[in-house]
Amino acid sequence: MPIEVKAPNFPESVTDGTLVTWHKQPGDAVSAEEVLADVETDKVVFEIPAPQDGVLEKILVPVGAKVLSGQVLAHLGKGTGVKPAKPSAETQPAAAEPATAPVEDLITPSAKKLIAEKGLDARRITGSGKDGRILKEDVLSYLEHPPAPSTSQPVRAPATPAAVLGARMEKRVPMTRLRQRIAERLVEAQQTAAILTTFNEVNMQPILTLRDKYKDLFEKQHDTRLGFMSFFVKAAIEALKRFPEVNAAIDGSDIVYHGYYDIGIAVGSPRGLVVPVLRDADQLSIAEIEAAIRDFGARAKDGKLSLDEITGGTFSITNGGVFGSLLSTPILNPPQSAILGMHKVQDRPMAENGQVVIRPMMYLALSYDHRIIDGREAVQFLVTIKEQLEDPARMLLGV
After folding, report:
1. How far is the C-alpha of 154 from the C-alpha of 386, rounded, in Å?
2. What is the DSSP letter of 122?
3. Is 0.85 surpassed by the pTM of this model?
4. pLDDT(67) > 60
């Protein structure tokens, strides 16, 4: 009697998924809890583990197929299976080329197909997936930006018909489930909310001075680096306490005022933008906030964030400054009513007490839903954040 390998029971907010990778093939030996496949939903990627030791007998759902909650994906049988033999030092030639089997195992089917079509060397492509796995996006990126040829060997251009030289290339890449969901939510935000954006600027010198003074001691004592985001989280929480409508949401004809502060932090990942949530952020110390944000960033890169961690939130912060953005209008994360945009810190001439001085300045942007937040509250909210950051003692004293 074969053992069934099933998809997980998805939460109510997830209707189905797409099987994106099989890590094992029929006849391969597997160990209990070893990851057999990845199922991508519009929120997270679920890893499908082997229920016990055995052999993968049959794959029932191919790569690219839709997967439902609890669906049987494969059959597992008893036995030792087939494991690739390791060549001994006696039989392996000293000058042999590097084995390609490990590389093949780290290429997704769609990427392998594209590599074969283009006649590429997979060993020259850097994988961004789990454990260095080469994704189709990595191959496309390699084609767009191929590495420079080695100067030690003369490079001879292949004979190419004149018609091909003048051709204009196009490529069609299917959107991932996460990217589709991001697109849906962004359109939803634009269509259902009256979005406006107000701007201000903040002198970051006090924060920079404070961080430079204590960053080494902070890292030594708390085992995490001191960044900017924790100060912005603390400043935002103080502003949210003063202007509760910014921490509220519209539900039908009602306004829901949240008595807690769950702050979403936008994080970039290979699969797209995700917004993990700092639960009860008002109860966290600066060190706890910094540690949590760095953990979110690391696990977002590996696709390890859980569904609960990226669901909910009452207010969001996004930092385009890490990519060099000087100014932007962030878009709401429904059903939240506001989002704070941070930007690049840049030295600019400023007038202070009749004198022109150079200060490290950052533009701030608050996008908000005008149906629930008036312009006056939005401006005062942003001014409160500016005041907190330009005088960090305010955050300690609560003034």
Report:
1. 58
2. G
3. no
4. yes
pLDDT at 100 > cutoff 50 = no
Tell me what pLDDT residue 106 has. Answer: 76
Q: What is the DSSP string of 265-329?
A: E-EEETTEEE--EETTGGGS-HHHHHHHHHHHHHHHHTT---TGGGS--SEEEEEGGGGT-S---
Instruction: Give, rounded to a whole angstrom, the gap between the first and last alpha carbons of the chain.
Output: 69
Query: Which two structure tokens, joined as six digits, stand for 161?
Result: 């018909």
Contact by Cβ (8 Å): 68, 7: yes
pLDDT at 211 over 60: yes
Distance in angstroms (rounded) separating the CA atoms of residues 106 and 330: 36
With a cut of 50, say whether residue 130 has pLDDT above it: yes
Q: Is the pLDDT of residue 229 over 90?
A: yes
| Contacts of residue 336, Cβ cutoff 8 Å, sequence gap at least 6 | 249, 264, 313, 314, 315, 316
Closest CA to 20 of 98, 99, 73, 93: 73
Q: Which long-range contacts (CB under 8 A, 24 or more apart) does 293-301 make?
A: 293/227, 293/229, 293/230, 293/265, 294/224, 294/225, 296/265, 296/267, 297/267, 300/267, 300/268, 300/269, 300/274, 300/276, 301/269, 301/270
| Active-site residue set | 370, 374
